[in-house]
Amino acid sequence: DSRKSTRIDQFGAVPIASQFSLLCYDAIFLTLFKLHDNILNLLKGKAKRVVSNYNSRIYVSLHDQSLMSLIKAQLKKLLDTIDTKVTLIEKLLNDDICMAFMNLAETSDDDSIYRMTVNKKKTLSKFDERIRHASQPIELILHQHYLHYARLKRDAKNLWTTLESTEENQDLESMNVQTKVLVANTNMTVLGTAIGFGAFVTGAFGMNLDNNFVDWMDGTFLIVTMTTFVIIIIATRLTISALRASEVIPEESVFGAWLPF
């Protein structure tokens, strides 16, 4: 009918209503394309939510990591399927004789192509006018669906790249956090070592400057305490500066401007 002919026209095929086989091929390829396109759209929806969770959190939950792995596995399977379809269509487009055999409506009217192949008395050339006439409608349909699958393959690869980039960014963010934790541990270790000087002073005087064996002047305890505190701060700053100068730890402070390190 006219609707079928219009459908053939939309996909670039010859508008011959009697060529029911062309409509069948078109419907088969379109059904498969829609199936794979729907799967890709479903994966895009899932990936959007997972990527949003990855980008909004420093530490990604185990559930999100599992969901990311599942989406990538499903996407990889879809990519393999699409690659197979694209390769198949490319092979068909490069084989005029095969496309001519696919045009059942034409070959049913003139089966000389089949008979020549079966008898093998003559070499069947792709330049044969019968081959060109029979293969052209199939080629137009295949080319249109090849463009559809090429676009689908591009979208699937773009989604794969997005997922890979999201995981890489999350890995870099996690490594950055771990580095800051290590730097903070290093700073606290240096501070703890410097505080050991105060313990030495305390131990040297039996934990008490006020005793009957030494006659101290007034304010001695405050002076010793402040001196010890200043020495601890200076020792910490000098050690941190030395570590930064040797590039053992980064220049930026992990505790912000309110601490000397």
Features:
single chain; 261 residues; mainly alpha; 8 helices; rod-shaped; disordered N terminus
Number of strands: 0
Count of individual helical segments: 8
* Structural class category: mainly alpha
Ends: how far apart?
82 Å
> Which stretches are poorly predicted, pLDDT < 50 over at least 5 residues?
1-18
**Quaternary structure state of the chains depicted:** single chain
Gyration radius, rounded? 38 Å
Q: What's the rounded overall pLDDT mean?
A: 77
SSE order = HHHHHHHH
Helix content, binned percent: over 70%
Q: What is the molecular shape?
A: rod-shaped
How much β-strand is present in the residues?
under 5%
Tell me about the biggest sheet? none
Sequence-ordered SSE layout with sheet pairings:
Elements: H1 2-10, H2 20-56, H3 62-93, H4 96-102, H5 104-109, H6 112-119, H7 129-204, H8 220-245
What does this protein look like?
This protein has 261 residues and is an all-alpha fold. Helix content is 77%, strand content 0%. The protein has eight helices and no strands. The longest helix has 76 residues. The protein starts with a helix and ends in a 16-residue tail after the last helix.
